[in-house]
């Protein structure tokens, strides 16, 4: 039986509640379990998207076709690796190819997204448990926080002032909104607020960005006029945030390997009024740190590809499978992340670097940073970040920050900041690091073993 027939059969059985997905797959007797697992799980994740796309065509009016076989075929055709079959099924899909593409494009316009993945996240997150508040970062290149608040008030929203606790964020309802308690340019709305059609978003005055993903540029905090690298930049929310921190002055070199994501990024930066960027379709690992072009680069933001396990609504129970977060895959990602981090530290004038992921796995977070620090501890220190942020990196790396849905009402996230030891400009000057007293207190609270070792020395 082909993988498509097998996957459709498993979807039928799931609908009949015959067993859990993993059980059905492992008991299927199919030779390539990994391939089958990926196809079934991805079809499930895209299920409502697929149904809507298919309903925009006359595919289901064809004789003897059933929904689940059509779903797996359309999944692979539109979102997967392309159909790996011939004969009747391929002919069927190809006959409806143009309609399918048109229906997909229509759905993207309707949901106001550019990427297939965004379609997925939106559809999945809408069906998930406790919803997160909605965050909007005020784009200070185009407006001020005060003007954005005034505009929203005139538009029927009720401003509640600055939040005093995380509970204030979780309790927002209706058209109430507030300023965030940690990040100064961030406004917080109730979970059912959709600002995609709002003038402030359409005009680039606000950027709809999860709170945790605002941390890297906020913490790196390059001053106006600085030379900065955004190493893995697309689709560019953090790039536009960096530009705002730089008051749109200086040089912002942004690299990405994916041309489609880069083109989305150009649109996003244009809307945000960013002009200090220089985008390059390039492998960051091949960017030469000795190139005179980068001789003044003092700040690097490194937000490399990761497992994405922190994204709320990714159906973690499904993605926790051999195809997506196997130890093998995590190790490959961690190797790539380590290479990027080591490469970034080769830029001769680097003063400060922020490393971030939207992963929950310590293999991609603390382990990557700890391995790098072992190699570079003579020249770089790990900066202890935001004393008021309660969720910390896992011991011993409590200088770093973590964020999670349950504790911080954000997507799962990790941030570390490395600073050159002889750097004249200290993060302290930006008020972004812990005072010595609060670091000491946290060391005592967490039993920071690194600090203990240092003390022993
Ligand atoms: C987590 S995403 C970055 C998100 C982005 N920082 C933002 O906030 O919008 C990781 C990006 O790294 C890019 N990437 C992966 N490998 C790369 C490499 N070797 N060089 C440059 N970019 C790379 C991917 O195409 C992807 O767009």
From TrEMBL:
List, alphabetically, the InterPro entries matched. MeTrfase_RsmB-F_NOP2_cat, MeTrfase_RsmB-F_NOP2_dom, NSUN5_7_fdxn-like, NSUN5_RCM1_N, RCMT, SAM-dependent_MTases_sf
Q: Which residues form the signal peptide?
A: none
What highest taxon heads this organism's lineage? Eukaryota
A GO molecular function annotation here is:
RNA binding
Q: Any idea which residues are catalytic in this one?
A: 358 (nucleophile)
Which portions of the sequence form the region Disordered?
429-457
Query: What does UniProt give as GO cellular component?
Result: nucleolus
Q: Known PANTHER family for this protein?
A: 28S RRNA (CYTOSINE-C(5))-METHYLTRANSFERASE, NOP2 YEAST -RELATED NOL1/NOP2/FMU SUN DOMAIN-CONTAINING
Q: What is this protein's record name?
A: NOP2/Sun RNA methyltransferase 5
The organism named in the record is: Erpetoichthys calabaricus
The organism's lineage is: Eukaryota, Metazoa, Chordata, Craniata, Vertebrata
């Amino acid at each position: 039986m082909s993988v498509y027939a097998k996957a459709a059969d498993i979807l039928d059985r799931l609908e009949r509640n015959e067993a859990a997905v993993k059980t059905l797959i492992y008991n299927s007797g199919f030779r390539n379990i990994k391939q089958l697992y990926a196809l079934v799980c991805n079809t499930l994740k895209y299920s409502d998207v697929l149904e809507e796309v298919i309903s925009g065509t006359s595919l289901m009016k064809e004789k003897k076709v059933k929904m689940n076989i059509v779903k797996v075929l359309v999944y692979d055709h539109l979102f997967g690796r392309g159909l790996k079959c011939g004969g009747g099924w391929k002919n069927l899909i190809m006959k409806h190819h143009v309609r399918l593409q048109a229906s997909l494009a229509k759905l993207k316009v309707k949901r106001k997204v550019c990427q297939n993945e965004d379609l997925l996240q939106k559809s999945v997150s809408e069906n998930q448990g406790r919803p997160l508040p909605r965050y909007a970062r005020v784009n200070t290149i185009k407006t001020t926080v005060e003007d954005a608040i005034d505009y929203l008030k005139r538009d029927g929203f009720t401003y509640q002032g600055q939040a005093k606790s995380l509970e204030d964020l979780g309790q927002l309802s209706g058209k109430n909104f507030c300023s965030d308690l940690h990040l100064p340019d961030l406004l917080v709305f109730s979970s059912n607020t959709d600002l995609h059609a709002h003038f402030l978003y359409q005009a680039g005055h606000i950027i709809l960005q999860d709170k945790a993903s605002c941390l890297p540029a906020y913490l790196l905090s390059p001053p106006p006029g600085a030379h900065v690298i955004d190493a893995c930049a697309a689709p560019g929310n953090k790039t536009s945030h960096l530009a705002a921190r730089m008051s749109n002055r200086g040089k912002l070199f942004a690299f990405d390997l994916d041309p489609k994501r880069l083109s989305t990024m150009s649109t996003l930066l244009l809307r945000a009024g960013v002009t200090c960027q220089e985008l390059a379709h390039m492998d960051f690992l091949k960017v030469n740190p000795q190139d005179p072009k980068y001789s003044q680069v003092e700040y690097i933001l490194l937000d490399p590809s990761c497992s994405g396990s922190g994204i709320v609504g990714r159906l973690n129970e499904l993605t926790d499978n051999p195809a997506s977060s196997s130890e093998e895959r995590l190790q490959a990602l961690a190797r790539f992340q380590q290479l990027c981090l080591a490469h970034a530290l080769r830029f001769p004038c680097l003063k400060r670097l922020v490393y971030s992921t939207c992963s929950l796995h310590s293999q991609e977070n603390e382990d990557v940073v700890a391995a790098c620090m072992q190699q570079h501890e003579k020249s770089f220190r790990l900066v202890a970040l935001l004393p008021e942020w309660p969720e910390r990196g896992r011991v011993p790396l409590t200088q770093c920050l973590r964020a999670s849905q349950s504790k911080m009402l954000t997507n799962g996230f990790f941030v570390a900041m490395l600073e050159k030891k002889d750097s004249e400009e200290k993060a302290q000057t930006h008020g972004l690091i812990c005072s010595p007293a609060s670091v000491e207190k946290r060391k005592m609270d967490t039993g920071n073993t690194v600090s203990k070792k240092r003390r022993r020395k």
